[in-house]
Each structure stands twice: as structure tokens, then as C-alpha cells.
Design goal:
Blueprint (H helix, E strand, L loop, with lengths): L5 E2 L21 E3 L5 E5 L6 E2 L13 E3 L6 E2 L13 E3 L4 E4 L13 E3 L4 E4 L13 E3 L4 E2 L15 E3 L22 E3 L6 E2 L13 E3 L4 E4 L13 E3 L4 E4 L13 E3 L4 E5 L11 E3 L4 E3 L29 E4 L7 H5 L7 E5 L2 E7 L5 E8 L1 H8 L4 H15 L10 E6 L5 E7 L6 H6 L10 H21 L14 E3 L5 E3 L5 E4 L5 E5 L11
Parallel strand pairs: 3-5, 5-7, 6-8, 7-9, 8-10, 9-11, 10-12, 11-13, 13-14, 14-16, 15-17, 16-18, 17-19, 18-20, 19-21, 20-22, 21-23
Antiparallel strand pairs: 1-4, 2-3, 24-28, 25-26, 26-27, 27-29, 28-29, 30-31, 32-33
Helix pairs in contact: 2-3
Amino acid sequence: MKKEEWRDPHNALSDWNESHQNPCAWKGISCDAFNTVTLVDLTGASIFGNLTSFICSLPNLTVLTLQDNDFSGPFPHGLLNCKRLRKLDLSSNHFAGTLPTRISKLSELSELNLAFNAFSGSFPSAFGMLPKLEALFLHGNSLNGAFPRFVGYLKSLVHFTLGNNPLRPGAVPRELGNLIQLQQLLLYNCNLVGGIPTFFRNLTQLEWLDLSHNHLSGDIPASLMALSNLRVLFLNVNNLYGQIPAIIDQMRSLSSLDLSCNRLSGDIPTELGHLKLDAFNVSNNHLAGHVPDALDNPIYQEGFLGNQRKPSDWPSWKLTPFTLTEVDESYILCNLKEANVIASGGAAKVHKVILPNGESVAVNKIPNKSRTAESLEIKGDQQEKERWKTEVDILGLIRHNNIIKLLCCISSEQSDFKLLVYEFMPNGTLFDRLHGGAGPHEALQWTTRYQIALGVACGLSYMHHDCPSRIFHRDLNPRNILLDEDFGAKIAGFAVSVELDGLGNVFAIRQMRSNKYTTIF
């Protein structure tokens, strides 16, 4: 084992001492009963360098896992000499170029993971010559060829993921119906067109099916309901139309269902209420009718947004735009998920939401005090509503390159929260850049610091002298200075209430002292 072939910035391989004849005690090494190396697992070691064939000098090596490192360059063809490999995991590195055309040399492979790299081009037919392959993970690359029909020859395949690849637009090939052992099929965001194929009914062992974020059209075939082992079904963000099949309750194992952002119509089938769903979303369709009693519950309310009918006591949302934007309130609301939270404090959270056009926005979800006041019968509720309206009216008037742009607000008198939608700042806050609050960063150069300071000064000058109504920030600090992709400064952290002078004119915007709601946009 020649660790000199690799760079090890964090000394993850510090105990790899070549003077020791037996490497079985080294980090990431496992051996069999005869003290011969069978496994090398260096997940997350941050190593990089040349992956030459030296590692294949280990005659009994069956598992090589180099996930989450910093290897780059083309696929390391020297690894094709590791003839006994059963598992090869090179995921989450920086490999690029085309997939290996001689991969069939690894005829013992049962698992191949090349996900989250930058491989491009088409799929070599040699991938269909791996008779023992049970798991093939290719998601998160830049593969742009046609959908690989060779997959249909991999009769032992149990897991197949191809999501997030810009494939040549095409239908799901019929050969996929041959994979009767398949349990996981993830084909999200890979340019699929046409209808959902009826031959999916052959995949009776399927537990997870994700066809989301494609261009699929037509109805949801009733044959899909025959997949009684299916636990997760994601068909969201397509062009599906027609009705939700009433026999959907035949999918007895289903626990997560997402049909949002399609063109489904008709009544919401009562049979949906027969399923025991942990996650459910049919928002942004054209559904009507009565919500099934079993789903008429606040925990499911976001799953019905953007349809024609909903329970009368659920919120009716209003979007107030301040600039030309493609923001849609239903789309924003159905993407307020925990996985999208980029900052939080107290009861407030900030979500990053990627719009259908690819633009990112920051959504500040603020607790609605007026709702609380109403429930406690506190006087002055109407005054607080007026303050909220005045605030968004004033912030909507601000137009300056060094002040965060408020795109719109989304509110409802029936809801316990309201939303402010801002442009997204990819470089976070000045505080994070100065003090490492969002992880390690390169130190800001003095020229960049000067640029930031000048931008803040320009923004303050506008607020104090050129704004239609003079605004005093009152809490300017590094947490309220945001940085765009070019490290341009944007002043943020404005109030959720306003102060008026004796003539009724806005003269100051009061800042939230705790900074809990304005950590990052």
C-alpha cells in the first residue's frame, strides 16, 4: 500500500506505516482470517491524488469505498484490474469525463456507486455486462446521453438511481420492465417525457419510485396501483392530468405520496383517507370536492394548497408583489420544508426555495402575532395588522443595489405565520465570513472588505437622504449585512413594525433587537 500516491491534508492515514508488514490494524482496512486485505474504506477522509492500479496489488480486495473525498480527473481505469471487487464506491468526489467502457472487466461487482461526480456523455453498453450487479447509483452527475437501455439486462438489479442528470429527452424504456427484483428506482429530474409506463406493474418488489421533476404527461395509470409493496411514490412537478385513481388505496404499504405541481383534476378520492400516510402532498393541481375526513387535519393542510377546494377554516393566502417576479404563493408554501431551512432562531425560520425557473429566493417565515393576539383576546390586534401592512408597503418602495430586495410578502389572516420573500444571498452574512459562523471560509481580502464597507455606506446614504421616506436602521451589525455572489453588500434586518411621527409619516423602521429573524437571506 503506497499512501505516497495520495495527498492527506488532515492526516487521516497517519497510522499507515509501510514498515509494518501487516496493515490490518490501519485505519479503514479490514482483513480476512488469513490477514489479507479484503476491504479499504476511507469515507470522508478528504484525501486526493492518483488512483493508480497499486491498490489492485491486493489480491483479495473485494470492497473499495472512497466516498466523500477530493479525488478528481477521469475515471481511474487502473481500478479495472481489481478483478475480485464486489463493491466499488467513488461517490461524492470530483471525477469527470466519460464513464468507463471496459467496466465489464469487474464481473464480480454487486454494487457500483458513481453518484455525485461530474461524469458526462452517454452510457457504455459494457454496463449491461455485469451479471451480478444489484445496485447501480449514477445520480447527481452530468450524463447527457439517451436513457440506458442496457439496464434491462441487469436482471439482479435491486437499486437503480439516475436522478439529476440532463439526459437526452426520452421515454422510460420498456426494458426497465424486466427488472422484477427492483426495490428502489429514482429517476427524478432526468428529462423523461411521455406517459408513466404501464409495465411498471411488473416491478412488484418496488418500494420506492421517484419520477418527479420531469416532463411526464397523461394520467396516472391504474396499473401503478398494483404495486402493493410501494412505500414512497413521488410524481410531483410533471404535466400529469386526469383524476387520481380511486383504487389508490390498494397501495397498502404507501406512507409517502407527492402528486403536487401537476394538472390533476376531479374530486379528491375518499379512498386516500384509507392510507396511513406520514407525508402527503397534492398541492398545485386543479382538484375539487370534499377533503376526505381522515385527511381533514391541520398537519395535512399544506398538502392541499393551490387547489380549487379546501376546508373553509384553512387559510386563504394573499401575495403582495413589490417587483416583477415569478413567485407563486402555492409553490412557496409547499416548499417550506425542514430540508430547506438555512437559518432559524426562536420561532422563526428562513427557507431557501428554488423556483421552477431555477432562481433561488429566501423566505423568512415569521410568527403572526395577530393570530396569537386573537386567540388570547388581546386588544390592539387591528393596530398590529396595520403596522404589518405599512411595513411591507414601505419596504416595497426601497430600490437600491445595497439594500436587500423584498420581492413579495405572503400573508393570511387565518394563519399563524406570514412570509417575506427576498432575493437569495449565496455568500451569507458578513458575520459568518468574519467569524466562521457558517463553516470554514477563505479570509476576506482587504480589497473585498473595502468594497463591502463602501456598499454599506452607499446603502445608508440612500436610506438617510434619498429614500422617499427617511429610514433609520437602528441595528446595523455584521449579521444584517448580506453578501451576494460577488461579495456586494446588502443591508437587511429591517423591522416587523414601523414608527410614525406626529403627522402620520413613517420616519423609522424598528429593528428586531434579538436578530432572531434575520440571520441570513
